[in-house]
Amino acid sequence: MPSAHSLDASLVSAAASAVVTPGAFLTLHYRLAGPAGDVINTFADKPATLSLGTGELSPAMERCLMGLAEGARATFELPAGEAFGERNPEMQQWVARTLLARLGEPDALYAVGDVVEFPTPDGRGGYAGAVIEANATGVRFDFNHPLAGQPVTFEVQLIGVL
């Protein structure tokens, strides 16, 4: 039977070598960039906390993290479409201005490139759409991820793995 001292040392060693496994809870800094530059970058702000397997990261990005040790810093180049799928033209939808007025500000102006948050039907979350066209009766939104169909650079620094 190991002594209490050697048991404590083995626990410290196990914690120091924690690696990312399915379902792991992570604290990390990460950066997502496409050809036009950064879309998300937490390195200059608070680190993100997330749980793998819950949809917070795409499956391709989760695969990149598997097996990385706590404290690791790595950069992955994902080919076009791998990180967020291909662009889907069906994800571009017209929304009537009357509905937009009910959901937000009645007199809001929408310019190409604006990103608008929409509530989910159950009210527990939201999703975003980027304005790609507007006329007097409606606004056309692109609900594809901004990096869909593009090559993505995924940079990560693992701070903690549980």
Describe what this molecule looks like in 3D.
By secondary structure, the chain is α+β, with helices and mostly antiparallel strands. The longest helix is centred in the first third of the chain and has 13 residues, at 4-16. The protein folds into two domains: 4-82 and 147-161, Chitinase A, domain 3 (Roll), CATH 3.10.50.40; 89-142, Thrombin, subunit H, CATH 2.40.10.330. β7 (126-134) and β8 (138-142) form a beta hairpin. Strands 1, 2, 3, 4 and 9 form a five-stranded antiparallel beta sheet that branches. Helices cover 17% and strands 36% of the residues. It contains three helices and nine strands. It is elongated.
Brief characterization of the structure:
The chain is an alpha+beta fold and 162 residues long. The chain is 17% helix and 36% strand.
Share of helical residues: 10-25%
Ends: how far apart? 27 Å
Rg, rounded, reads 21 Å
Strand content: 35-45%
How many distinct domains?
2
Number of strands: 9
In the CATH scheme, the class of the largest domain would be Alpha Beta
Overall body shape: elongated
Largest β sheet strand count, sense and barrel closure: 5 strands, antiparallel
Poorly predicted runs are 1-15
What number is the mean pLDDT? 88
Count of helical stretches:
3
Assigned CATH architecture of the largest domain = Roll
Derived structural class: alpha+beta
Order of helices and strands: HEEEHEEHEEEE
What is the topological layout?
Layout: H1 4-16, E1 25-34, E2 37-41, E3 48-51, H2 59-65, E4 73-78, E5 92-96, H3 97-103, E6 115-119, E7 126-134, E8 138-142, E9 152-161
Antiparallel strand pairs: 1-2, 1-3, 1-9, 4-9, 5-8, 6-7, 7-8
